[in-house]
TrEMBL record, chain A:
Record's compositionally biased regions (Low complexity): 22-32
Organism taxonomic ancestry: Eukaryota, Metazoa, Chordata, Craniata, Vertebrata
InterPro entries xref list: SMN_gemin7
Location of region: Disordered: 1-41
The organism's place on the tree of life at top rank: Eukaryota
GO cellular component, one term: SMN-Sm protein complex
Record's protein name: Gem-associated protein 7
GO biological process: spliceosomal snRNP assembly
UniProtKB/TrEMBL annotation, chain B:
Organism from which the protein derives: Pyxicephalus adspersus (African bullfrog)
Lineage, highest ranks first: Eukaryota, Metazoa, Chordata, Craniata, Vertebrata
Family matches, as InterPro entries: WD40/YVTN_repeat-like_dom_sf, WD40_PAC1, WD40_repeat_dom_sf, WD40_rpt
GO biological process: negative regulation of transforming growth factor beta receptor signaling pathway; spliceosomal snRNP assembly
Protein known as: Serine-threonine kinase receptor-associated protein
Pfam families referenced in this protein's UniProt entry, alphabetically: WD40
């Protein structure tokens, strides 16, 4: 006579991590610690920088701007109008180029190192 | 010691008490921990860094700690029969004290959205107190000392164990809903968040699972080799943990065989066809 079947055993992927023999734990680089700390400070800084950038765009709209681009190219435009959401295109009026003045022009974002304007 | 709930992985150890720790709790966001100990102190810890934040001196052994939902106040209770409410924003200030119990307090909980306090003591009573007036609102008398209490606010249920009895009360009226008798003295019991079942453990080392509606014993599990002192369901109800005098804490699946945490559901045919060397074949409980 066979023994009654045992309940199905539930296998585990691994055993739980035991306490470390040295140190009290609370690894500051653990996902849990990062979620509590870094999320706070890191995300706050990112949002502050983003907000400053958007405010600078708003402040410069309608003002004369100077673009500093690669290969020591500097161009001036009489009026900065807008840029798209990804900051990929900057739309300006009366752009002064070596070939003459462009009434309306789009400047590619990746070509620009910086742009400046006077408040 | 703080461990990950689903896997049991060790996160860290709160080092500092100079006596046995009788009670421990986390705040709502698990950013702070509080402990009650036999070194006549309760301590508040940063549960992210593990740092000790506040030490609250008592006149005797502290057995129970509980945070308010906003984590600004801590309720303590212990051997000196007094309930204390500490304002954690002003830890130097003297705590508010509520007296009335005639024996050591075992457990004290915030109740009814922190507007009331529920305490169980060795004087065989469970008392309900008003937070503002600090007066006794109601007393439940028992023929034996209450061994554990669990308050399930969402389920409007209060679970009390004493002797071999597991009793369910309506949390607002404090009227007895029903009670079951276990085969051995029960030290702790926990109600499933969806009220499917109750798990209980006590002096006979076994864990019992009861059907909530019928009170029928569904299962009993052997595993511990010492009396079980505490049993609690996880908030999602997928598992429950039991702590025993044998020095282990075990995690048990509510529905045995599910893939959850470190458990891996393997169908019988997979066991045969697949090389399952990588999978430990440990029974449903995990040794701490």
């Amino acid at each position: 006579m066979e023994n009654p079947p045992l309940l199905p055993q539930v296998p585990v992927i691994r055993l739980p991590r035991p306490p470390s023999p040295s140190g009290r734990g609370f690894d500051p680089s653990s996902p849990r610690a990062l979620a509590h700390h870094a999320a706070d400070s890191h995300q706050k800084i990112r949002s502050t920088l983003r907000e400053r950038f958007l405010r600078s765009l708003l402040a410069s709209s309608g003002l004369p701007v100077t673009f500093t681009m690669y290969q020591r190219v500097t161009v001036n435009a009489e009026k900065f109008n807008a840029c798209d959401m990804e900051a990929y295109n900057f739309q300006v009026s009366n752009l002064q180029t070596p070939l003459g003045v462009q009434d309306e022009a789009l400047i590619r974002g990746p070509d620009i190192i910086s742009y400046s304007f006077c408040i | 010691m703080l461990r990950q709930g689903d896997t049991g992985d060790w996160i860290g150890t709160f080092l500092g008490h100079k006596g046995a720790v009788w009670g421990a709790t986390l705040n709502k966001t698990a950013t702070k921990a509080a402990t009650a100990a036999a070194d006549f102190t309760a301590k508040v810890w940063d549960a992210v860094t593990g740092d000790e934040l506040i030490t609250l001196a008592h006149k005797h052994i502290v057995k129970s700690v509980d945070f308010t939902q906003d984590s600004n106040h801590l309720l303590t209770g212990g051997q000196d029969k007094l309930l204390r409410i500490y304002d954690l924003t002003k830890p130097e200030a003297d705590p508010e004290q509520i007296g009335g119990h005639t024996s050591a307090i075992k457990k004290a909980l915030w109740y009814n959205n922190d507007r009331q306090i529920l305490s169980a003591a060795d004087d065989k009573t469970v008392r309900l107190w008003d937070r503002v007036s600090m007066t006794e609102v109601k007393t439940l008398n028992f023929n034996l000392s209450v061994s554990s209490m669990e308050y399930i606010p969402d389920g409007e249920t209060l679970l009390i164990t004493y002797g071999r009895t597991i009793a369910l009360y309506n949390s607002s009226s404090l009227e007895l809903i029903k009670s079951f008798e276990a085969p051995a003295p029960i030290n702790s019991a926990s109600l499933h968040p969806e009220k499917d079942c109750i798990v209980a453990g006590g002096d006979d080392f076994k864990l019992y699972k009861y059907d909530y509606s019928t009170g029928e014993e569904l299962e009993s599990y052997k595993g511990h080799f010492g009396p079980v002192h505490c049993v609690r369901f996880s908030p999602d109800g997928e598992l429950y943990a039991s702590g025993s005098e044998d020095g282990t804490l075990r995690l048990w699946q509510t529905a045995v065989g599910k893939t959850y945490g470190l458990w891996k559901c393997v169908l019988p045919e997979e066991l045969v066809s697949e090389n399952s060397d990588a999978i430990y074949n440990v029974s449903s409980e995990l040794k701490a």
